Amino acid sequence: MSASQDVVIEVHDLTKIYKMGKVEVQALQGVSLQILRGEVVAIMGPSGSGKSTIMNMLGCLDRPTSGEYMLDGEAVAQMTDDQLASVRNRKVGFVFQSFNLLSRQSAVFNVELPLRYGGMMEGRRARAEEALRAVGLEDRMTHRPTELSGGQQQRVAIARAIVNDPAIIMADEPTGNLDSKVGREIMSLLLNLNRERGTTLIIVTHDPTIAEQTQRVIRLRDGMLESIS
After folding, report:
1. How many domains are contained in the chain?
2. I need a surface site. Which of 67, 86, 88, 92 has the fewest CB within 10 A?
3. 167-193 CB burial, b ≥16 within 10 A, e <16
């Protein structure tokens, strides 16, 4: 396999400018980086550094103002909203600090959602159940989020993130709403999924103990790449 095939994310001179009335805010200023397939990477930086913006770009939730972005071989920087949504559903799994589950639906229904959005009809329930078993929730499939602990809700969110077998999982402060013991369990689960499935894992975090468990740390400051270590 060539080096280019090993690269799952490649961005060149990525910029993002937000307009607030007559004021322009440069959230990203010419960021360039590569992330390899199967890597575990942390993105860190103080508030206002551009962490959320770069996550939105890499996760195809938003488009850059300028620059190039290749995701798993596809040029996505100038795609339409519909094209971005399609790539996002196929290529990216998201895990959020606040879980983002539908409270009135069962765990298995929540995990099915990316498959529903992708138009999958047959085998959808079986795929969702398999993902829940992978995160150790085979006995909680019919429970609603309100009937689950915080750690169990985050496991449902992780199952939802992996159900499409995405190229990358993006986790935004995935342990932020959990106590330290459950947070360690969730981090261990994510790392195990990375090892077993080879999924690229990108974690946005303020927590240095989380960053220490990754292979590389990307640090941003004032919308610019400060360091990669």
Report:
1. 1
2. 86
3. bbbbbbbbbbbbeeebbebbbebbeeb
